[in-house]
Write a structure and sequence with these properties.
With 144 residues, this protein is mainly alpha-helical. The protein is built from six helices and three strands. Helix 3 packs across helix 4.
């Protein structure tokens, strides 16, 4: 494919994906109390048994002080648990709580429901097949 064609596809695809992403973020009332960074932290903690506050700050590219405030907020909401390290009492392991996992599942369920309804109502059968076939190439782009 020529560079011109890929540039044209990129120019058309980027704003559509950005708008869809923003719409999905706004849809779920269950996570309105959380910032994007707080949601990202919960997902990171779901993917790892635990992380240290400093590790989370580096991953999210924010200051340790800001991370401390965010973790305190998540802890007040009972979405994360803090446990002292057995090896080094100065370190605190941060993990997602059962309530945090439930919140993430609810958010995902609400977003999946909306997207499923939207696909069923506005896309023809052929368009639904095109969307299904596009998942592979879109996944490649995300992993690039």
């Amino acid at each position: 494919m020529s560079t011109e064609k890929s540039n044209a596809i990129a120019s058309a695809l980027r704003p559509v994906l950005a708008r869809l992403n923003r719409k999905l973020r706004k849809l779920s009332p269950s996570d309105t109390v959380l910032s994007q960074t707080e949601r990202s932290i919960l997902v990171l903690l779901e993917q790892n048994e635990y992380l240290l506050s400093a590790e989370l700050a580096v991953i999210e590219k924010i200051t340790p002080q800001s991370m401390g405030a965010i973790l305190n907020h998540l802890s007040e909401l009972h979405l994360v648990s803090k446990t002292a390290s057995l090896d080094d009492k100065r370190k605190v392991h941060i993990s997602i709580s059962a309530q945090g996992k439930e919140m993430l599942e609810q958010v995902r369920h609400e977003r999946d429901e909306w997207l499923s309804k939207a696909i069923a109502e506005v896309c023809t059968e052929q368009e639904q097949l095109i969307l299904k076939e596009a998942i592979g190439p879109l996944t490649k782009l995300v992993n690039f």
